[in-house]
Specification:
Elements (H helix, E strand, L loop, with lengths): L6 H19 L6 H8 L3 H7 L3 H24 L9 H12 L4 H17 L3 H27 L9 H20 L5 H15 L6
Helix pairs in contact: 1-2, 1-4, 1-6, 2-3, 4-5, 4-6, 5-7, 5-9, 6-7, 7-8, 8-9
Keywords: DNA-binding, Repressor, Transcription, Transcription regulation
Organism: Streptomyces olivoverticillatus
InterPro entries: BetI_C, Homeodomain-like_sf, HTH_TetR, Tet_transcr_reg_TetR-rel_C_sf
């Protein structure tokens, strides 16, 4: 009886092989054949799932995002309701976006490789245009809750502040990857920004 193949597991194995290679040599130096060898499968088996490097990269990027989302939920959901404040949710979410350990560093390097290709690839660029507004709205929703609670100044625009948080995460990521900032310094700067943002109107 032929061995049953777990297709989801194989796709994830391919994605993880791509992450490892892209983080060490970049995407331009990584071929489909390289990824197949790293994943321990034949090129023909890989092409059964992904016909091009762009298609494989898009899947890997979506998988990275799902794993990061799951890690945020693991941090936030077990918290008691009184500790699940907008600031805590935002802090945990942004911390997961930063390269604070080897896993998140690899994920960020793959995202940078994706960014470089997306500049010239409409299909990949469309993924960013759809994903960033969703993240901005999630952050903005937390900020609106904070405003209702009086935790931030009422005059702050939630959408603008949400986009600034995303830009902060991108900037801290770049400098942490270049070792300009240590992971601890990146978190300190994040906390300093949140301290200023979560300053309510003086009474």
């Amino acid at each position: 009886m032929p061995k049953r193949v777990d297709h989801d597991e194989r796709r994830h194995r391919i994605a993880e092989a791509l992450w490892r290679l892209a983080s060490s040599r970049g995407l331009d130096g990584t071929s489909l054949r390289d990824v197949a060898a790293e994943a321990g499968i034949s090129l023909g088996q890989l092409q059964h799932y992904f016909s091009s490097k762009g298609e494989m990269l898009l899947f890997a990027l979506e998988h990275i995002n799902k794993l990061a989302e799951a890690r945020v939920l693991e941090r936030v959901v077990p918290l008691p309701e009184e500790d699940r404040s907008p600031r805590r949710v935002l802090r945990e979410s942004i911390a997961e976006m930063l390269p604070l350990n080897e896993e998140s560093r690899t994920g960020n390097l793959v995202q940078i490789a994706y960014f470089v290709r997306a500049v010239h690839d409409e299909r990949l660029r469309r993924h960013a245009r759809e994903g960033i507004p969703a993240l901005r709205e999630f952050f903005a929703g937390q900020l609106r809750i904070a405003a209702q609670r009086g935790e931030i100044a009422a005059g702050r625009d939630a959408e603008t502040e949400a986009m600034l948080l995303i830009a902060l995460a991108d900037g801290l990521t770049s400098y942490a990857l270049l070792d300009v900032h240590s992971p601890g310094e990146a978190l300190r700067l994040l906390d300093a920004h949140l301290d200023r943002l979560f300053t309510p109107d003086p009474r």
